[in-house]
Amino acid sequence: MSFEADLTAAKDEIDRALTLGWAELARLTPWGDIYEGLTPEGREVCFERSYLWNTETGGDIRVEVNVYEARDFEGGVRSTRSVEKEN
User: How far apart are CA 54 and CA 71, in angstroms?
Assistant: First the structure.
């Protein structure tokens, strides 16, 4: 397992999600899913994505991505970013 590759994969997934912006993400929040994919080094992992209200409904959105091998959830990495509510 490569911690750095998994963290890179998690950050890449968050970067893609943030291209949507607050208004589009708000339509999806709260929501989450899990899918299988590959890390930059080609290892099979699970990606768990969550879009959650940070503190209150309609406010900032917390985007979380957890990357882990199917047999080792606890050994995975998590990356989290917030998207501020647009005025």
Answer: 29
| Contact present, 2 and 10 (Cβ < 8 Å) | no
Task: Give this prediction's pTM.
Answer: 0.84
Q: Taking a C-beta distance cutoff of 8 angstroms, is the pair 63, 14 a contact?
A: yes
> Residue 86, CB half-sphere, CA atoms under 13 Å: how many?
7
- Domain of 12 in residue numbering reads as 3-83
The count of domains in the chain is 1
CATH of the domain at 7: 3.30.1300
Q: Which two tokens stand for residue 34?
A: 């899990």
User: What is the DSSP track for 36-61?
Assistant: EEE-TT--EEEEEEEEEESSSTTS-E
Phi first, then psi, for residue 79 (nearest 5°) are -125, 135
The residue behind tokens 């291209």 is 19
pLDDT digits (tens, 9 = 90+) for 37-65: 998 888 899 999 999 999 999 999 999 99
